[in-house]
Every structure is written in C-alpha cells, then in structure tokens.
Write a structure and sequence with these properties.
Belongs to the GMC oxidoreductase family. By secondary structure, the protein is of the alpha/beta class. The chain contains 9 helices and 21 strands. The protein has one domain: 3-Layer(bba) Sandwich (FAD/NAD(P)-binding domain), CATH 3.50.50.60. The longest helix has 21 residues. It is globular and about 75 Å long.
Length: 528
C-alpha cells in the first residue's frame, strides 16, 4: 500500500473497555494518542429502538465460527455500547483455576485481592450502581421468586447504569438513547478526547510490523471502510508509533497478530489458542402463567401474572449459589436472568430431542414469547477454542455488513460439557419446580452461543501457554500490549466487562513506564 506514513507516540487499536482506558491514561499523562476503530461513531441521538437491518446491525457483529457463534460490538466504544451493563467482580477462586493443563493459568501476581483496587477504580469511574429489588424488572423478580421457591438464593445485579435516567426500555442491544448505560462513550473516551487523543472511526487495522522511521518501533497499516458497507474499502494508510496497545477484541486481536507474525519476526505460540466462550450457556423457560399465579402468587397487573420478558433492563437478578470455591473445577457457575430480543426466537428448540425448527409446537412456543424467562449460565469452560489461518484482510470474512465467518474452531471438551450439564440441571431444578415452566435448550445449530469472548491472547506465567506476561505485554515484543478480553486467562463465571476494564486499568502504569523508556514524554496519573 503506497500511502503516506504519519507518526504518533501511541496507537490504540480498538475503543472498547480494553482500548478506551489505556487511551485515556496515556493521553492524560501527556502522550500523543491515536485510536483506530473499525466501526462507526454513533452519538446518543443515533441509537434507535428497532431491529431493522441497517440500524442495530451497524454496531453489532454476528460472527460464525466452526462450532460457535459470537456476538460482538463494532463501533466507537466497542462492546460497551451494546452490552447489558452487568458489572461484577470475578470470584476469588477464578484466579486459581488450573483448567486441564494442570497448572495455575493466571499470573502469580494476579489474585482477586490484587485486582480489587482496580475494580474499585472502574466502578467509581463508570460508575456502577447496585440495583435494589425496586430497580429489578419483572423478569428478574420472577427468577428471584422461582429461586426462593426452589430453596435457592438470588440477588439484584450491579449494573453500569444511571438508575435515575434509565427508562427500562430494554433496548440496550441498540445502544442507549438516554445516556443511562455507562458505556465508554460517556466516561473514558470523552476524557481521552479532552486530553488530546484522536479517535478515528471506520479504520480497520490490517497489519502490525516494524517501523521504518528512526525512533519509532511499530508500523500499523490500516484500511478505511465505507460507513454503509464495511466490506467496501475507501482508502488506507499507515501510522508509526513507539507504543501499540492492541484492544480489537478477542475475535480480532489474535487474527491480527497471526497475520502480522511474519512482519514481526514471529509471535508467541499461544496467540490464537486457548479461546474461551466464558462458558456461556443459555436456556429458555416457557413459563406457565397459571402456575406463576398459583405457586408464586405473582401478578404484574390484574389478571396477568407475568407476560413480561420484554419489560425492563435486560439483566436484573442472578443466583450465586453454585459459586462454591471448594467445589471441583468445571462444576461452578452462576445463573443470571437475561433478555434476548425477538430476533433470537428461532434459536430455541421447541422439543427436547433434535432441533424442531418448524411446525405447530414451534409456532406455539414463539407465540408465547412474552411468557419466556431466559437464563444465562456462565460456567468454567476448558479454553478449547483455536483460530485457524487468518483471512487476507480483517478479523473475519464479512458475508454482509454485520455477519462474518471466523477461522475460530470451538469443540467443547468433556470438562466444558460437564459444566454445561451441571448448569442445565440447576436451571431445570429452579424453573421447572412445581410445574412453573418447561426449560428448553438454546439451539445447537451453529454450536455454542457466546457474548463474552475471552482468552485468545491470554496473559500468564508459562510462555508455552500464554502470549502475554503479567503486565499485558506481548512476549518478545517490547512496547506491544494487549488489553482487551483476549488477555483474560480463563472464563470468569460472571459477566467479564468489569474484569476486562480492571485489567486494562492495571496495565496502565506498565504501559506508561515502557512508553517513557522509549522516549515518550508521559507520566502516569491515577487522577480522574
């Protein structure tokens, strides 16, 4: 590509949790920062309350791998714009996980206690609010009542939402028109801009290689893409920097590094291996309205016990009963009430055996959609995902503007299946008790469904099984850091956004130290 080369102190690739936080810390410290983001830049007034193609599909990618389908954000702010805002600290036992490799997977320097100060910083900055039962929507209340009926506990979920501004519209997948959801658009990114950072949307990075300008280390080559069809290139260029922070997401970061391996003189063998779906497992309970009334004594309005799947925030309550630190690995999980929009109705099976996609039973099931209760289990999976040969450009092959085909292969091991089976059993024990519902599995067509991709370029102490050291720096490549979900070593048993953000905050001092070592006039400040 014969394009002019520019220079800067720091290039940040991606603008979600993993990119926005380092961008702010470095810009606030005095570095010249350029953020390259593959997706568009939407403002509050651009978010819509519909599921039409060309609206929410502008900012959400549905990525199909072999054995798995992943949902990810594609916009300035990344997945923070489309996530459901559940903000939880990972349980302490997660940091001691050994998986099937037989040794501790997290760096020895990282435990829950050492990450707590960084969790607290993110919680205050977003900020995170603890819902009361008065804030929890009807589906969350129904799940809590079912848990109590089954002898389980249930709690309101802490969320990165301004509860005073939230209208409970349940359109979080499409962004937030009310500036209630605390995405990166409302905190770290504006702060980075205020300190001189530059954000460039519709810039898809293709390659990272050595710089040719004296005094710089890395050359980042990118393509600009059309805002209406991301498959159409509109130009391109290159920018050289002393520091690169790679935060393109767990589905893109390993692909970009694999494509760049030859130019970089090789990358660690763990790049593109050990992908985790966060153990995501979805079940759909078709609730019996009569039993809700007779067993639970609930009534949303006169004559209507429930019929409220679509009402309120997407996430309201969850049960932590199976997060026992003394239990065996691959048997621990959380259960969370969660909402999926009508477009996903076809993904649940109407029968217990096989995939009943059509027919009377399927039609009747979809017709009773308002009486569904959707439950997400987050389990301990086995980091079994592996990325194959990267496509010539991009993170995946785009079949349409929001649909792509990834080189990721995900075949659940016996350990992962064990965790899913335990979660399925618990979901049925809670929701089918006393005839409250019939629990259906999410569709197996296309494999697992994942909204929390992790670990594809993970940190750790063992160079053979981790791509990053405990400061998020890519082994063998000083000044190249990875700070997105791909750096998280294992599944977390809870929603990962807060942990990704806390780890990105924790990486800040190390990135600043390396930048100063390479001649960038920058200092670290924890001020906000």
């Amino acid at each position: 590509m014969n394009a002019a080369t520019e220079t800067t102190d720091v290039v940040v690739i991606g603008s979600g949790f993993g990119g926005a936080i380092p961008a702010y810390r470095l810009a606030a410290g005095g570095a010249k920062v350029v953020v390259l983001e593959r997706g568009p830049w939407l403002r509050t007034e651009d978010f819509t309350h519909d599921l039409r193609l060309g609206t929410y599909t502008r900012i959400v990618d549905l990525i199909q791998g072999d054995g798995i389908t992943v949902v990810a954000g594609n916009c300035v702010g990344g997945s923070s714009v489309v996530y459901f805002a559940a903000s939880l600290r990972a349980p302490g036992f997660v940091f001691d996980r050994r998986g099937s490799l037989g040794h501790r997977l997290w760096p020895a320097s990282l435990r829950r206690a050492t990450l707590d100060p960084w969790y607290e910083r993110v919680e205050q900055t977003l900020p995170v609010a603890q819902q009361s039962w008065h804030d929890v929507p009807y589906p969350g209340g129904l799940f809590a009542a079912a848990c109590r009926n089954a002898g389980r506990t249930c709690n309101p979920v802490p969320v990165a939402v301004d509860l005073r501004r939230c209208t409970n519209c349940n359109w979080m997948l499409s962004g937030c028109r009310f500036d209630a959801k605390r995405s990166m658009l409302l905190n770290y990114l504006p702060a980075a801009l205020a300190h001189g950072a530059e954000i460039r949307p519709l810039h898809e990075v293709q390659l990272i290689g050595p710089a040719v300008t004296p005094g710089y280390r890395y050359r980042v080559t990118y393509t600009t893409v059309d805002g209406d069809d991301y498959r159409v290139p509109t130009g391109g260029g290159a920018i050289e920097a002393k520091i690169v922070v790679l935060a393109a997401g767990a589905m893109a970061t390993p692909v970009l590094l694999q494509r760049s391996a030859a130019a970089l003189g090789g990358v660690p063998a763990a790049v593109g291996r050990y992908f985790s779906s966060n153990g995501d497992r979805v079940s759909v309970a078709a609730m019996n309205e009569d039993r809700i009334r007779d067993v639970l004594g609930l009534e949303r309005e006169p004559g209507v016990p429930y019929e409220a799947l679509h009402i309120g925030k997407p996430i309201g309550s969850m049960s932590y009963d199976r997060l026992d630190p003394h239990a065996a690995e691959f048997t621990r999980f959380s259960l969370q009430q969660i909402y999926f929009p009508t477009i996903t109705n076809l993904l649940t099976r109407s029968g217990d055996a096989g995939s009943s996609w059509f027919g009377v039973e399927k039609k009747e099931l979809s017709a009773r959609w308002r009486s569904w209760l959707t439950v997400l289990a987050m389990t301990e999976d086995d980091n079994e995902g592996t990325f194959g040969v990267p496509p010539p450009t991009g993170a995946f092959t785009r079949l349409a503007s929001s649909i792509g085909l990834s080189p990721l292969r995900y075949a659940p091991t016996a350990n992962t299946l064990r965790g899913w089976a335990a979660a399925d059993t618990e979901a049925r024990a809670v929701l089918e008790r006393d005839g409250l519902s019939r629990v259906r599995p999410w569709s197996d067509v296309g494999g697992a469904l994942c909204a929390h991709p992790l670990s594809s370029c993970r940190m750790g102490d063992d160079p053979a099984t981790s791509a990053l050291d405990d400061s998020n720096e890519l082994r063998g490549h000083p000044g190249l850091f990875v700070t997105d979900g791909s750096a998280v070593p294992t599944s977390l048993c809870v929603n990962p956004s807060l942990t990704i953000a806390a780890l990105a905050e924790r990486a800040g001092p190390a990135i600043v130290r390396r930048a100063a070592e390479f001649g960038v006039p920058v200092r670290y400040s924890d001020a906000w």
